[in-house]
Structure formats: structure tokens, C-alpha cells
């Protein structure tokens, strides 16, 4: 699993590379988290 520092660095790299504003980056992260949660709640048996 990635360390928090690696995750933050990756987010910064994406924001810089794609020229995203703070708001756009926040929305992108939120969408990713929500998609992951939706997948987790729909198929919990596959995560075992």
C-alpha cells in the first residue's frame, strides 16, 4: 500500500500535469472515492 506522502505527491503531479485547479482536483478525488465506495458496497463478496 502506498504511503500518504506518495499519494499526496501523485495528486500534486496529476494537478500540475493536467493543469487542474484546486477545485477540479478536489472534484476528481471525490469522484474517485465515491466510485470506489460504490464498487465496495455493490460487490463486497469479491473483496474477501
Assign the structural class, choosing from mainly alpha, mainly beta, alpha/beta, alpha+beta, or little secondary structure: mainly alpha
Low-pLDDT parts are none
Rg computed from alpha carbons, rounded to a whole number of angstroms: 13 Å
Number of strands: 0
- Average pLDDT confidence is 87
Based on CA inertia axes, which overall geometry fits? flat
Q: What can be said about the biggest beta sheet?
A: none
N-end to C-end Cα span: 17 Å
Commentary on this structure:
It is built from 2 helices and no strands. With 48 residues, it is mainly α. The protein has one domain. The longest helix is centred in the middle third of the chain and has 21 residues, at 22-42. The protein starts with a helix and ends in a 6-residue tail after the last helix. The mean pLDDT is 87.
Amino acid at each position: 500500500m502506498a504511503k500518504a506522502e506518495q499519494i499526496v505527491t501523485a495528486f500534486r503531479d496529476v494537478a500540475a500535469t493536467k493543469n487542474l485547479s484546486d477545485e477540479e482536483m478536489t472534484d476528481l478525488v471525490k469522484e474517485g472515492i465515491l466510485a470506489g465506495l460504490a464498487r465496495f458496497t455493490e460487490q463486497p463478496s469479491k473483496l474477501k
